[in-house]
Protein 1
Amino acid sequence: MDEKMPLVSVAVITYNSSKYVLETLESIKAQTYKNIELIISDDSSTDNTMQLCKDWCDQNKDRFVRIQVIEPEKNTGVAANCNRAEAACEGDWVKLIAGDDLLLPNCIETYIDFVKNNNDAICIFSKVEVFGENKIKVDNFKDSIFDYSFFDLSYDKQYEWLIDGRPQPIPAATCFYSKKRFNDIGVCGFDKRIPMLEDWPRWITLMEKKVKFYFIDKLLVRYRVSDDSICSGNKYKPAFRKSLALLYVYYQHKSYSNLKGKKNAYSRYITNMITITDNSFRWRLVRKGYGLFLKFFNL
């Protein structure tokens, strides 16, 4: 393998993505960087996503070093789908992309040029353009989430931001990372316990491993917000709210380390609540109750 042209795995994460997935695939095909393998991992779509992808791959197989299409027998959630895709990746570097987002033509080449000049970089982000057909939804999303000032903060401030309940500021759609070096430090896959929120737990895990987040001040990815998006601005679907509650249980409350047995007992209570209900109002009560619980014990 030519060290100047490392193999990059671009992995497309799909679920009922038929409306936009061909645009996504064409954006990967159009990359100025050539040494790419294509992985498509579906989550048991009920539309014709897989047939569209297979037909497209047959027509464009000569563009890529390798193509693999993964079809599970049942729906498992985003985190598990990302794990299937990541496990199939053979490249030195990995770029995950949702089946409705787009890579700008110079995306992969820009990342590779950056890592050549920054040997310590194993996790890199860039600017992202939020777009979609509904301008109100797009504008709401822009105003409610991504904040590039995060990358200018100290490690302590970044970690605090990720665990204190504020909106997650990292443009996850732009993440470019070394699978091998992630594995070397013990970051293997996404947390399947949180099925619809794959990125935030990984950021917290990486920060606990003292991994530096690098940032390229260039627009490299387009992130689509649509009516089908699991989250859009401040409006979350019930499955996403459930995963936010699970994030709180498994990750964010870990910073409160003095509660001991009482904390563990309450965590089990919340987990049971999460298991038995899909009611979004109940999630809000559970999360609010946990915050009051910590406040009561001065934690």
Note: Confidence is low (pLDDT under 50) at residues 256-262.
Protein 2
Amino acid sequence: MAHAEVVLLPDAGPLITLAYADALDLLLRPQWSVQLVDMVLHEVTRIETPSSARIALWAAKLPTVPTRVFQQYSDAKAATKGQLRKANLGELAIQECMNEFALTAPPTVGVFLFEDHRIARASFLVPGNCHKISTRAYLLFLEQRGLLDAGETAASVERTAIHNGRSFSRLHFPAP
């Protein structure tokens, strides 16, 4: 029996936090495929921010997954001269990818990395072959698996991001 591929799909929040911590490469540590959804990449690079250039440079090494969500957003943006709803479009694009994963044989295992506490509570549809995990839980996973550098901890990565100016959610999911 063939093993299913594992694909990590980070949302905007984790990309921004890890960029502030200068730790984007932590996404590669489990040696899963990391794919960036076009709408999410657009969200984090469309305007200049303290993390946008770092994310764009890092993202250039990775595959970007095209989605209907981003295509429709792009088409609608042109038609409305930029006056368009943007909220939750990255999550919708990731949802689209995970639905596609459920249709592959064997199903691709999708890991949706999020930071927004509203997603933790939302009825975000996750197919049986996919999982959602918070940035904190992911960092703890890396720590528990010994995938962080010597002397590095999940808490130290979080502290670095906060020290460098990231306003990181105080909500812990799952709750401690």
Note: The chain has a mean pLDDT of 88.
Protein 3
Amino acid sequence: MKKNLGLITLLVVACLFTFLANDRFLAPVNVENLLRRTALFSLLSIGVAFVITAGGIDLSIGSVVCLVGTLLPYLVVQAGWSWPVALVALLLLAGCLGLLHGVLITKLRLQPFIVTLCGLLLYRGLARGITGDQTQGFGLEHEGLRAVATGKLPTLGVLPFEIPSVVLISLAVALIAGFVMSRTPYGLFLRAIGRNELAARYSGVDTDRVKILAYLACSLLAGVGGTLFILDVNSAQPSDFGNFYELYAIAAAVLGGCSLKGGECSIVGILVGASLMQVLRNAIVLLDIPTQLEFAIIGAVILAGAAAEELVRRLAGRAAVA
């Protein structure tokens, strides 16, 4: 909880600094876009949190977003599929990819880094090959479907801006994930595996099944995210759609309290971490900082978060000994 309070303070400071430097930060349109992007990336961050809590990693998130996001308009517009069938098929595909990751990691004992790195390359290559590397979009024919991601909820004058509909989707997923993590045996098993997998196995936990479900959840939420991302932007180029999205997801999870060594997770912290990442991206644009530095800044944030985690762990260990 103390770590969350510190992260919330950092978020408030970042917002205040950006507003003082450029008052457009609190413009209704900017706030709505910021909320929408935060909600979308929160879905990816919550998904990767399951994997990180179990002591794993998933580098294929951005490519799953690309595969699902570009194939949805391809199947609906070019192949003539009905959108419900295409949507269900692609979400099943995303879930199966996560299932495949989990099986390869648990049954063949392959390293998560290698498995998901290969997935990063493979899924984007498939998306580019299937679509002919052509830009995919819905045009103006499916505005009703796009409203799932672009819709807004009126605040009846209570707030100077409207709330994007994807915020409710993200909050619903966060509530479910929070319940699973804190109130179910699965969440307990997941943290136990991250802290000491061998001890968890000797305690009777089916560690393979728990880890497989974690990778399945991660890829499935990446598929949901890819669907919402393409509905939001309407068109995408397979060569760059979803690029480095896994970086944002992992950064938000680490900042939000997920230990890269496994065993720790805070859904509230993840939401705050995702918000901080998007505020930083927004600040780069509003403050006219060269966008080429965006990834450098995000990389520095991840490094700082990991270093802070290790320092806190060491200080806590010394305090316990003393």
Note: The chain has 13 helices and four strands.
Protein 4
Amino acid sequence: MKPTTLADLSQLKKEKRKFATITAYDASFAHLFAEQGINVMLIGDSLGMTVQGFDSTLPVTVEDISYHTRNVRAGAPHSFLIADMPFMSYATPEQSFDNAAALMRSGANMVKIEGGDWLCDTVKMLTERAVPVCGHLGLTPQSVNVLGGYKVQGRDETSAQKLFNDAIALEKAGIQLLVLECVPTGLAQRVTEALEIPVIGIGAGNMTDGQILVMHDALGITARLPKFAKDFLKETGNVRDAVRLYIEQVESGIYPDQAHSFN
């Protein structure tokens, strides 16, 4: 099987073909996801809540992400893997070098960092050192204590313009993917159309280039599903069928619908 690359994702955007991605934390689920046709997976610091049982992502360490990245790579050798840089692992450009290198050595194809234009120098220096970077704007879970909770972002004109400006600045600095989390559909569409790089949404409507869900949400394992999430297992009764349905509904634009989006 041919490995999935950033060039493949860029081509999907050019062709206006939507793609589905999902979080993965172990070899078995990674293999199942790849087998059903999900070629991009995120080893998310969401594992702090879904796997480790914490109430936020903040306790997750680089060692945790490295461990789970190795597991996912073993199960999905040809998939494109994005590894989250955990809380305070990229507070300075110098810090980010060693931590990003550890994740790349564990099997990641790209690292993801949360934040706006203050990260431009870090993005530029990482890409110059052969580390592809995915940005993350909107609801950034590592900033939950600053944001005052898990709230939709960019609902007023000022914050929406700030997010848009951050997206433009990060692309100029060198990010090659962008995740938009919990933002109004119209804002997500505006960002997606302005950027040349693929934009992946989660709680950002169906106008982005791709979608991502935490696997536990997509399979209905989470005790309380977020508004934007859909339990695909409930509709199918079978994990493999649930994953295929998720892919089909993302690619067709059926999911997320208005009930799973913010206006």
Note: The first strand starts at residue 19 and ends at 23.
